[in-house]
Amino acid sequence: MADSLHSRLQRTLGGAVKRLHGVHGMRRAYRLCAEAVDCEQFFLSDGDFAIDADFDPTAVEPLDEGVSMRVWRAVNPVNGLTYGYGGLKLIRRSALREMGEAVDVLAALPGRVEFAERAAGVTRFNQSPFHSWKAGFRECAMLTRGSEYGMADGDARWRVDAWSRSSDGEFAAFAAAGAREGVAFAREAVRHPDQFERLNDPSWLWQRFTTAHGDQAVSG
Questions:
Q1: 146 has pLDDT over 90
Q2: Residue 204: how many CB atoms within 10 A of its CB?
Q3: In a 10 Å sphere around its CB, with 0-12 CB exposed, 13-18 middle and 19+ buried, how is residue 158 labelled?
Q4: Best mean pLDDT range from 25-39, 52-66, 147-161
Q5: Beta carbons within 10 angstroms of residue 58's beta carbon
Q6: Is the distance from CB of 119 to CB of 52 less than 8 angstroms?
Q7: 57-98 confidence digits (pLDDT tens)
Q8: Distance of CA 100 to CAs 70, 175, 199, Å?
Q9: How far is CA 166 from CA 19, 42, 56, 206, in A?
Q10: Cβ neighbours of residue 7 under 8 Å, at least 6 residues apart?
Q11: Strands (E) located in 103-159
Q12: 193 pLDDT above the threshold of 90
């Protein structure tokens, strides 16, 4: 859906939106975004984000000094959650260039992060069995490990439970399976913290998915 969602983003934001595609590794992709843009503060959208058509970019206040990123919530299509996962960002180019190391990549930005109350769209990650499984696996592994954004443990557990019971929309069962397997992975990896970096390795995630669910699930 990258083509149609990119076109939707351009219509809503009212101008050309640069697109970075086919880059291996999330951290590298974010860092390349900083080199692709022409201004210090810019909107950053994942390729699977469907922005609300009524989102008004002209009403958005710029980031205050010391704030590196603002995140608008996104509606989750498989479990009804609405929070920062997959949401639209307003971000500083300089912050991306100075990004440190974290499993949840953008949690390593210097400065403060703001979270807007309103939702700006839907995160349409559930486009295939693998995409849905990967979303549940990565998010719940990171939440089980401990949110790097400072989310309270009770809130994290509530979100993990909702992911694990995903039952709405296409491929929801794969999101639920990924969530449960992500929790198990996080508990195993506590003894070997370096294992968490695998959550940002697309090849490793693909292998883990096909090993657990078989090639027949890929085109489901």
A1: no
A2: 13
A3: middle
A4: 52-66
A5: 6
A6: yes
A7: 999 999 999 999 999 999 999 999 999 999 999 999 999 999
A8: 18, 29, 16
A9: 30, 33, 31, 21
A10: none
A11: 112-123
A12: no
8 Å CB contact between 48 and 127? yes
80 Rama sector, left if φ>0, alpha if ψ -120 to 50, beta otherwise: left
Task: Return the pLDDT at 220.
Answer: 47
Q: Rounded to 5 degrees, what are φ and ψ at 83?
A: -155, -165
**SS3 call for 127:** coil
> What is the DSSP code (8-state) at residue 6?
H
Q: How far is the C-alpha of 217 from the C-alpha of 207, rounded, in Å?
A: 13
Tokens 């939702």 map to which residue?
119
**What single-letter DSSP state applies at residue 171?**
T
Q: What Rg do the C-alpha atoms of the chain give, in angstroms?
A: 17
Question: 114 has which bridge partners?
Answer: 70
